[in-house]
């Protein structure tokens, strides 16, 4: 298993520095990770550091709580694309999910998805599976599966519970084959990363990516 190609090497803390971004990108290039995921103000810088390598640049929209207005998420999406982002990890409106306002959630994705498709970018919709009921996760999978988003993502990493094998398995059962899964939140070792991939995850959001890679030499 080439676990490196599953990893989005991530730093999203509000105190992120320029040096943090440089280190993140250099590590991503060294280990050939799938992408770096950085705060929106650092997209252009990350693009400079990753250059012409295969490492994609991802950023977040509506992060971390998802309750930004649709118009705000549109503005964030447009700016991220202008700045050079390849992939956008958008937090779904979690308030709408908990209040069963599926019409709002459909309007949100129907508004934002064309912007991303028009520029041939990738969208990952974060549903924060750790704080949802099973039936809410299933409804999210049905909605975002119908819109054929690129990925449904488990977590922001900011909730009390991150990715779980059970959540990934449930999502895989209820998503169409063309919609991939990104697991994130609390992935700190190779064993757990491998479990999540076996459960159906296609991408892993990790801040402990280098430690995971160092483990692979002794775990394979």
From TrEMBL:
Keywords: Cytoplasm, Lyase, Schiff base. The active site is at residues 89, 153, 182. One of its GO terms (cellular component) is cytoplasm. It is found in: Cytoplasm. It comes from the Bacteria. InterPro entries: Aldolase_TIM, DeoC, DeoC/FbaB/LacD_aldolase, DeoC_typeI. GO terms for biological process: 2-deoxyribose 1-phosphate catabolic process; carbohydrate catabolic process; deoxyribonucleotide catabolic process. Pathway: Carbohydrate degradation; 2-deoxy-D-ribose 1-phosphate degradation; D-glyceraldehyde 3-phosphate and acetaldehyde from 2-deoxy-alpha-D-ribose 1-phosphate: step 2/2. This is Deoxyribose-phosphate aldolase. The gene is deoC.
